[in-house]
Write a structure and sequence with these properties.
The protein has 228 residues and is an alpha/beta fold. It contains 6 helices and 10 strands. It has one domain: Spore Coat Polysaccharide Biosynthesis Protein SpsA, Chain A (Alpha-Beta Complex). The protein has helices at 22-35, 52-61, 79-85, 111-114, 143-153, 161-171, and strands at residues 11-17, 41-46, 64-67, 95-99, 103-105, 121-126, 136-140, 178-179, 187-189, 204-207. Strands 3-2-1-4-7-6-8 form a 7-stranded mixed sheet, covered by helices on one side. A 3-stranded mixed sheet has the order 5-10-9. β2 (41-46), α2 (52-61) and β3 (64-67) form a beta-alpha-beta unit. α1 (22-35) packs parallel to α2 (52-61).
């Protein structure tokens, strides 16, 4: 695993790139976080399927760059599932917030770190439109939790990894394992949809379509690299 220095007790935003098509979204998320003046560092988990040229872009823009350690995937998870579980292996960080690369920050949301405390393991989680999708969660990385979850996922009986994580958190009776505030949960933004910057206190939007199908200029953003 490659580590790009920094404070081992830091709090970071974490996203991922599994294929080249994830890279424009991850880079645009990164830029949107910097545009709203986040005080936290930004980290990315990267599959070796991502091309060298795209990996080079990610290394340049993100503070921390990690390769996805496929050899730890003893439960045979899909890459898009395993990348989320891999957040728990990054024990060089004190606390992290995982975000899908399809998300964009429209307002500063650093207070998600300040307003919540967490023991080792999951803190809070939220789906966007889909109860089976875990698009944002906070955690204190912990290898013990990672291996407990990995072992339990071997016998999940077809249950999706995200649903399994939710059930695990509920079974721990963690008082802080709860949905995140709606302003962090990622308003769904689709092709030709509009977004008013004064819509309540929404801090994140979530884009499920290619960046070139959505006008992100109202956020002061442009796609950082081509989707081609």
């Amino acid at each position: 695993m490659a580590f790009a220095g920094g404070n081992v007790h830091s709090q970071v935003w974490l996203t991922y790139a599994i294929t080249d098509s994830d890279v424009p979204k991850a880079l645009t998320l990164c830029f949107s976080m910097r545009r709203v003046y986040t005080s936290r560092k930004l980290a990315v988990l990267v599959s070796r399927n991502v091309s060298h040229s795209m990996r080079k872009m990610l290394r340049y823009d993100f503070d921390f760059f990690f390769y996805l350690e496929e050899e730890l995937n003893t439960a045979g998870l899909k890459e898009e599932e395993f990348v989320k579980l891999s957040a728990f292996t990054l024990k060089c960080f004190d606390k992290l917030v995982f975000l899908e690369p399809s998300m964009l920050a429209v307002k500063n949301l650093d207070d998600i770190f300040d307003n919540n405390e967490v023991a080792s393991g999951l803190l809070l989680m939220e789906a966007v439109q889909n109860e089976d999708e875990l698009s944002i969660f906070m955690a204190r990385p912990c290898l013990h939790v990672f291996w407990i979850l990995m072992d339990s996922l071997k016998t999940r009986n077809g249950k999706g990894m995200e649903a399994h994580l939710r059930a695990w958190a509920r079974n721990q009776l963690l008082p802080t394992a709860k949905p995140v505030d709606m302003k962090y949960s990622g308003k769904l933004l689709q092709a030709n949809s509009t977004f008013l910057m004064n819509e309540s206190d929404v801090s994140l939007v979530n884009i499920y379509v290619p960046l070139d199908e959505v006008n992100i200029q109202p956020f002061g953003l442009c796609a950082r690299v081509s989707n081609a």
